[in-house]
C-alpha cells in the first residue's frame, strides 16, 4: 500500500515538473519580457525583465498540477466526485421554479421601497439604476430565449434588434417629436419587421451558417448607424431623447409635474422608480407572452422544430413561417427593450450596440439554461448585477466571466436550470424532462 | 379487376429520380389502391426509400408525375408541392426508417404537434389563443381527446407525460405511427415499420395496421423487409430492383414470380442458373 502511494506521489511529482517546465518555457517569453519604451533612454525601445512574475506563474502551475494529481486525477476518491455529489441535482431544481418565481416577483415589486427605506432617496439611486440594468437584460434574455431556447435558432446578432428599437424611438422623437408611448409599439413593430426581413433569406441556413449571418447582420446595423452621419448622427449619437411621462405627467419640478400632482415633494428618484417599474412591467409582459405561447400550437411547433425539423415538415408544419414568427417575436421584444434603453439613457450611440452585448445576452440565456425563464433571471442577476457590484475590479471582469463559463461547462453543461417543463399534461402532474433528452436545435 | 387499377388513391407515373449520374429510380409506374395495404419491397438500395421521399416531397423527382386522389375528389400533383403542404393539404403522412420523434417532448406533446394545423386555425393564428378565446380551448380539448384515443390504442396511455426518448424501441415505432395518424391522413406511408421489432411486437404492429385500414379508412403504403409482415397483411405488393419495378400484384402472385425469387427472395445455389435462364438473364 505504502509502496503504491509512494509511486503515485513520485509520478505526480514527475508530471508536475513536466508541467512546470512547459510553463517556464511559455511564460519566460509571455510574462518574463516586456517590450517598453524606456523613458530614460530618449524614447528607445527596451526590454523589462520580470522574473518574479514568471516564478509565481510557474509555481502556480507546478503546485496546482501537483494538487490536482494527488487529489483528483490519480486519487482513489477524487475530490471533485465528492463535490459533485454535494451539487444540487437537476430534479431538485424543478420544484424550485414553483417557489422561486413568486419570491423573485414579490422581491422585484417591493425592491424600490426596500432600497429607499434602507439607503434613503439619494443613496438608493445607484442600486435602482443597477436594478433597471439587470431587468433590461432579463427582458433581453427572455426575448432571445424565444429564438435560441425554444426555437433552437442560434442568433449571434440579437443586439441589432435592440439597436433598431433604440434608434427607432430616438429618430422618431428627434424628427417627428413623437412621445415614448407612441414610439414603444412602433419600435417593437419595426424591430419585428427587421427580424422578418433578415429571417426570410437567412432562415434556410442552419447551425453555424445561421450564426455567422446573424452575427454579420448585427455588425451591419451598427456600421450603418455609425456611418450614416446625416441621419443618425454617426459616432456622435443622438442626445436629448425625451423622457417617458406618467399618463401625461412629466417627472419635473413645477406645478404640472408628477410630484405636484400627487402632492409629493419633488425628487429625482421618482423618475428612476418609474423607469424601474416600467422595465419590470415590460419584462413581465415578455415572460407572460412567452409562457402563454409555449402552451399554444405555435410554441409547441417551435420546440418541435428544435427537436427535429424534418419530422415537423412531415407533419405539415410550415417550418419557414414557424421560424420567422420566433425570430420576429424575439426581435420585437428586443425592440421594446431598445426603446426603453433609449429613453432611460436620453442619449444613444452605436457604441452601445457592439457584438459584446449580443455575446453577453446569449451568455445569459445559455448559462441560465436554454428555454428556462427563471434560469435567465438568475444568470442576469449574477452576470450583470454581480459584475457591477465589483466595479472596482473591472480589469478582472473578463477573467471572472471566463471562469464562470468554465465552471458552468464542467458542472452544468446545459445551463443552471436545464430541465424542460412539458407544455401540457394529461395526468396534471407531469415531471420535468431531463436535459439529456432535450435537443439544442441545429438552427 | 383489382382495386389499385379501379380506384387508386395514389398513382405514380414514369417516376425517375437521378442523383448526378446515378439513376435511383428509372421510369417507375404503379398505383396504390384506396383502402389497401400496399407493400413496396426490394433488396437494399433498390430505391424504396427514394420513392417514399418523392411521394412525401422530401425529394423533387427528376421526371414523372405523382397524383394523390383524395376522398373528396380533389387531386394533388405531389411532385409540385413543398413537403409540408403534402401532409397538410394532400393528407399524406409518413414515418421514418430511423425514428424521428420529438425526444425531449412528452408523448402527448408529440401527438399535439401532429395536430398543429387545425389547432393553429382554432387559435386564430395564435392571437385568439393568447387572448384565451373559448373556441380555442374547445379545439384543444378535442385534440387532447384524439391524442388520448391514439395513446390508448397503442397501449401507452399511462406514459402520456413521459418524454418520448425514454420509450423502448418498439413503443417508439408505434408512437410514430400514432403521431402520423393524428395528422388525419388518407394515405399513411410507413418506412420499415417492423424493423427491429420482436415477433410479439411485430404481430401487435400487424393488428394496429389492420385497425388503421379497417376502422380509420386510411390506405397504407409501406416499405418492409420482414416477409411475414408483407405476406400476412398486404393486399398488393410492388417489387423494386435497381430502381425498376420487376413485379406488381397480389402477395401470392408476387411470391411465385420467378423474377422476384431471383432478385429478392432468393433460391438455393444449385437452382440459380436454371432460374436465370427462365428469367432471361
TrEMBL record, chain A:
The organism's place on the tree of life at top rank: Bacteria
Record has Transmembrane helix as a keyword: yes
CDD domains: TM_PBP1_LivM_like (cd06581)
Pfam families: BPD_transp_2, DUF3382
Membrane topology (UniProt): Multi-pass membrane protein
Keywords: Cell membrane, Membrane, Transmembrane, Transmembrane helix
Major subcellular site: membrane
GO function terms (MF aspect): branched-chain amino acid transmembrane transporter activity
Transmembrane parts of this sequence: 12-31, 51-73, 93-115, 127-154, 174-197, 209-229, 272-290, 324-347, 359-384, 396-413
High-affinity branched-chain amino acid transport system permease LivHM N-terminal domain residues: 12-110
Cellular localisation: Cell membrane
GO cellular component terms listed in the entry, alphabetical order: plasma membrane
Listed name of the protein: Amino acid/amide ABC transporter membrane protein 2, HAAT family
From TrEMBL, chain B:
InterPro entries in the record: AAA+_ATPase, ABC_AA/LPS_Transport, ABC_transporter-like_ATP-bd, BCA_ABC_TP_C, P-loop_NTPase
Presence of the UniProt keyword Amino-acid biosynthesis in the record: no
Keywords: Amino-acid transport, ATP-binding, Nucleotide-binding, Transport
Gene Ontology terms describing biological process: D-alanine transmembrane transport; L-alanine transport; L-isoleucine import across plasma membrane; L-valine import across plasma membrane
Lyase as UniProt keyword: no
Chain ranges of the ABC transporter domain: 10-267
GO-annotated cellular components: plasma membrane
SUPFAM superfamilies, A to Z: P-loop containing nucleoside triphosphate hydrolases
One GO molecular-function entry: L-phenylalanine transmembrane transporter activity
PROSITE patterns per record: ABC_TRANSPORTER_2 (PS50893)
UniProt-listed Pfam families: ABC_tran, BCA_ABC_TP_C
PANTHER family in UniProt: CONSERVED COMPONENT OF ABC TRANSPORTER FOR NATURAL AMINO ACIDS-RELATED, HIGH-AFFINITY BRANCHED-CHAIN AMINO ACID TRANSPORT ATP-BINDING PROTEIN LIVG
Family recorded in the similarity comment: Belongs to the ABC transporter superfamily.
Name this polypeptide is given: Branched-chain amino acid transport system ATP-binding protein
Species of provenance: Roseibium suaedae
Organism phylogeny: Bacteria, Pseudomonadati, Pseudomonadota, Alphaproteobacteria, Hyphomicrobiales
Amino acid at each position: 500500500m505504502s509502496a503504491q502511494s509512494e509511486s503515485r506521489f513520485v509520478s505526480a511529482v514527475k508530471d508536475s515538473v513536466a508541467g512546470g517546465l512547459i510553463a517556464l518555457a511559455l511564460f519566460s517569453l509571455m510574462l518574463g519580457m516586456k517590450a517598453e519604451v524606456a523613458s530614460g533612454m530618449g524614447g528607445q525601445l527596451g526590454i523589462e525583465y520580470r522574473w518574479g512574475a514568471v516564478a509565481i506563474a510557474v509555481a502556480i502551475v507546478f503546485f496546482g498540477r501537483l494538487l490536482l494529481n494527488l487529489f483528483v486525477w490519480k486519487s482513489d476518491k477524487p475530490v471533485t466526485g465528492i463535490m459533485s455529489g454535494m451539487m444540487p441535482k437537476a430534479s431538485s431544481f424543478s420544484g424550485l421554479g414553483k417557489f422561486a418565481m413568486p419570491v423573485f416577483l414579490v422581491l422585484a415589486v417591493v425592491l424600490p421601497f426596500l432600497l429607499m427605506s434602507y439607503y434613503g432617496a439619494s443613496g438608493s439611486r445607484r442600486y435602482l439604476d443597477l436594478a433597471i440594468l439587470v431587468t433590461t437584460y432579463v427582458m433581453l434574455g427572455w426575448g432571445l430565449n424565444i429564438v435560441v431556447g425554444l426555437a433552437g435558432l442560434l442568433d449571434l446578432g440579437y443586439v441589432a434588434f435592440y439597436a433598431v428599437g433604440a434608434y427607432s424611438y430616438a429618430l422618431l422623437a428627434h424628427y417627428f417629436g413623437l412621445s415614448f408611448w407612441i414610439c414603444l409599439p412602433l419600435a417593437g413593430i419595426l424591430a419585428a419587421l427587421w427580424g422578418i426581413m433578415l429571417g426570410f433569406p437567412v432562415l434556410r441556413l442552419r447551425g453555424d451558417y445561421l450564426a455567422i449571418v446573424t452575427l454579420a447582420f448585427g455588425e451591419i446595423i451598427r456600421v450603418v448607424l455609425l456611418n450614416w452621419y446625416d441621419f443618425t448622427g454617426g459616432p456622435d449619437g443622438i442626445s436629448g431623447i425625451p423622457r417617458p411621462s406618467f399618463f401625461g405627467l412629466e417627472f419635473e419640478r413645477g406645478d404640472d409635474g408628477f410630484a405636484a400632482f400627487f402632492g409629493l415633494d419633488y425628487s429625482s428618484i421618482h423618475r428612476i422608480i418609474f423607469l424601474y417599474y416600467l422595465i419590470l412591467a415590460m419584462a413581465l409582459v415578455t415572460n407572460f407572452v412567452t409562457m402563454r405561447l409555449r402552451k399554444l400550437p405555435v410554441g409547441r411547433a417551435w420546440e418541435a422544430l428544435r427537436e427535429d425539423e424534418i419530422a415537423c415538415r412531415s407533419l405539415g408544419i410550415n417550418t419557414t413561417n414557424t421560424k420567422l414568427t420566433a425570430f420576429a417575436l424575439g426581435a420585437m421584444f428586443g425592440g421594446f427593450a431598445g426603446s426603453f434603453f433609449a429613453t432611460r439613457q436620453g442619449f444613444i450611440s452605436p457604441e452601445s450596440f457592439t457584438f459584446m452585448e449580443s455575446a453577453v445576452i446569449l451568455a445569459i440565456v445559455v448559462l441560465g439554461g436554454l428555454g428556462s425563464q427563471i434560469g435567465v433571471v438568475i444568470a442576469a442577476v449574477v452576470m450583470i448585477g454581480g459584475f457591477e457590484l465589483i466595479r472596482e475590479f473591472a480589469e478582472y471582469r473578463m477573467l471572472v466571466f471566463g471562469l464562470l463559463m468554465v465552471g458552468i461547462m464542467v458542472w452544468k453543461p446545459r445551463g443552471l436550470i436545464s430541465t424542460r417543463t412539458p407544455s401540457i399534461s394529461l395526468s396534471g402532474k407531469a415531471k420535468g424532462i431531463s436535459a439529456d433528452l432535450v435537443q439544442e436545435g441545429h438552427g | 379487376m383489382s382495386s389499385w387499377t379501379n380506384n387508386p388513391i395514389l398513382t405514380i407515373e414514369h417516376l425517375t429520380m437521378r442523383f448526378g449520374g446515378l439513376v435511383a429510380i428509372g421510369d417507375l409506374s404503379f398505383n396504390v389502391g384506396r383502402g389497401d395495404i400496399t407493400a413496396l419491397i426490394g433488396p437494399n438500395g433498390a430505391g424504396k426509400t427514394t420513392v417514399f421521399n418523392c411521394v412525401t416531397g422530401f425529394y423533387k423527382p427528376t421526371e414523372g408525375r405523382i397524383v394523390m386522389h383524395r376522398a373528396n375528389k380533389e387531386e394533388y400533383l405531389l411532385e409540385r408541392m413543398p413537403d409540408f403542404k403534402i401532409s397538410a393539404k394532400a393528407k399524406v403522412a409518413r414515418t421514418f426508417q430511423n425514428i424521428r420523434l420529438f425526444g425531449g417532448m412528452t408523448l402527448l406533446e408529440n401527438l399535439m404537434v401532429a395536430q398543429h394545423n387545425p389547432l393553429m386555425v382554432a387559435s386564430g393564428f395564435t392571437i385568439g389563443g393568447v387572448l384565451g378565446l373559448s373556441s380555442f380551448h374547445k379545439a384543444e380539448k378535442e385534440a387532447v381527446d384524439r391524442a388520448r384515443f391514439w395513446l390508448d390504442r397503442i397501449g401507452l396511455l399511462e406514459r402520456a407525460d413521459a418524454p418520448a426518448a425514454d420509450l423502448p424501441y418498439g413503443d417508439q415505432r408505434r408512437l410514430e405511427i400514432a403521431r402520423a395518424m393524428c395528422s388525419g391522413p388518407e394515405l399513411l406511408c410507413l418506412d420499415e415499420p417492423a424493423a427491429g421489432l420482436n415477433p410479439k411486437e411485430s404481430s401487435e404492429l400487424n393488428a394496429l395496421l389492420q385497425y388503421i385500414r379497417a376502422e380509420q379508412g386510411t390506405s397504407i403504403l409501406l416499405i418492409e423487409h420482414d416477409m411475414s409482415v408483407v405476406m400476412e397483411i398486404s393486399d398488393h405488393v410492388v417489387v423494386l430492383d435497381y430502381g425498376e419495378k420487376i413485379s406488381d400484384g397480389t402477395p401470392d402472385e408476387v411470391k411465385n414470380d420467378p423474377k422476384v425469387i431471383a432478385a429478392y427472395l432468393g433460391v438455393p445455389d444449385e437452382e440459380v442458373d436454371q432460374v436465370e435462364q427462365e428469367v432471361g438473364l
